[in-house]
């Protein structure tokens, strides 16, 4: 049976933030801190194979924590450091092991990655996810561009297999109607929500807060939702009164993807 594992559930800075002494960061520094969060990373695994989504600067830590020594397939949402900072380490693993990694992303994301790391092509095969999508581990995957506020754009992915459909949309805000369309009819939505209620001016923001995300859920109505990309504003020890079927992601959390196959 296919499953989704949350390896990294944090925002761009992770938790704890090195400079911060707030209660959440302090708790995250303890050896058993439930609020310790690495940069966004998930694994999709099943009988037909496996792949990761994103490869940020905590990629190595995440791999070590789950005892995984190599991954062949990675799907990237966008070329911001917290989502691609681990690519050099992945490429180095490929070099040492004599294996080639398979990197999947929309062409403009691949172009940006190669401008930052022009040598990656020596160790990775790059695959553009175009209008027809791609297929990984038996999942048919569709990509679409989403508004990422002051940070420009990201991509979200809708994945379908058998009778199960889910989406991964880690970095977005204020989606217009056409960008919400692929979020309808989902069994599971993984959505980025950095704060519970972010007070910063909208022009400076880049990710939904929880209050805004709940309004979005009332529109697209997924069967189940998991909020990820969490900042130090969110404390997993608190009860935020989330609706039934909505939860915050935690490091190591696993969700079954019941495809019916």
- Rounded average pLDDT: 97
Radius of gyration: 17 Å
Q: What is the number of helical segments per DSSP (H or I, 4+ residues)? A: 7
- H/E topology pattern: EHEEHEHHEHEEEEEHEHEEE
Proportion of helical residues: 10-25%
Oligomer: single chain
Strand segment tally = 14
Give the DSSP E fraction (strand runs of 2 or more residues).
25-35%
Could you list the spans in which at least 5 consecutive residues all have pLDDT below 50?
none
Biggest β-sheet: count, sense, barrel? 7 strands, mixed
Question: What is the terminal separation in angstroms?
Answer: 9 Å
What structural class do the secondary elements suggest? alpha/beta
Task: Give, in spatial order, the strands making up the sheet with the most strands.
Answer: 6-5-4-3-2-1-14
Morphology: globular
Secondary structure layout:
Blueprint: E1 2-8, H1 23-29, E2 41-46, E3 49-53, H2 59-65, E4 73-75, H3 81-84, H4 87-97, E5 101-105, H5 107-116, E6 124-128, E7 134-136, E8 139-147, E9 153-161, E10 164-169, H6 177-180, E11 188-192, H7 210-220, E12 224-228, E13 246-248, E14 254-257
Parallel strand pairs: 3-4, 4-5, 5-6, 10-11, 11-12, 12-13
Antiparallel strand pairs: 1-2, 1-14, 2-3, 7-8, 8-9, 9-10
Key terms:
261 residues, alpha/beta, 7-stranded mixed β-sheet, 7 helices, 14 strands, 21% helix, globular, RibonucZ/Hydroxyglut_hydro, Metallo-B-lactamas, MBL fold metallo-hydrolase
Describe the structure.
There is one protein chain. With 261 residues, this protein is of the alpha/beta class. It is 21% helix and 29% strand. The strands form two sheets. It has a seven-stranded mixed sheet. The chain is globular. This is MBL fold metallo-hydrolase. Residues 38-224 form the Metallo-beta-lactamase domain. Pfam families: Lactamase_B_2 (PF12706).
């Amino acid at each position: 049976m296919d499953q989704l594992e949350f390896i990294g559930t944090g925002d761009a800075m992770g938790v704890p933030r090195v400079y911060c002494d707030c209660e959440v960061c302090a708790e995250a520094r303890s050896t058993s801190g439930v609020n310790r969060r690495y940069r966004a990373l998930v694994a999709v695994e099943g009988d037909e194979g496996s792949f990761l989504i994103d490869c940020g600067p905590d990629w190595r830590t995440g791999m070590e924590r789950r005892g995984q020594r190599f991954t062949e397939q990675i799907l990237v949402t966008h070329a911001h450091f917290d989502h691609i900072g681990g690519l050099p380490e992945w490429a180095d693993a490929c070099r040492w092991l004599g294996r080639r990694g398979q990197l999947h992303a929309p062409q403009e994301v691949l172009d940006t990655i190669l401008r930052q790391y022009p040598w990656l092509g020596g160790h990775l095969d790059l695959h553009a996810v175009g209008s027809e999508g791609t297929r990984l581990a038996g999942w048919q995957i569709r990509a679409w561009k989403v508004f990422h506020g002051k940070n420009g754009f990201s991509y979200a992915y809708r994945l379908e297999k058998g009778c199960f459909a889910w989406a991964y949309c880690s970095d977005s805000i204020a989606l217009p109607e056409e960008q919400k369309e692929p979020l309808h009819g989902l069994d599971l939505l993984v959505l980025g929500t950095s704060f519970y209620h972010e007070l910063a001016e909208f022009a400076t923001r880049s990710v939904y807060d929880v209050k805004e995300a709940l309004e979005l859920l009332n529109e697209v109505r997924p069967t189940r939702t998991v909020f990820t990309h969490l900042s130090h504003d969110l404390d997993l020890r608190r009860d935020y009164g989330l609706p039934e079927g909505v939860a915050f992601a935690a490091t190591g959390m696993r969700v079954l993807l019941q495809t019916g196959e």
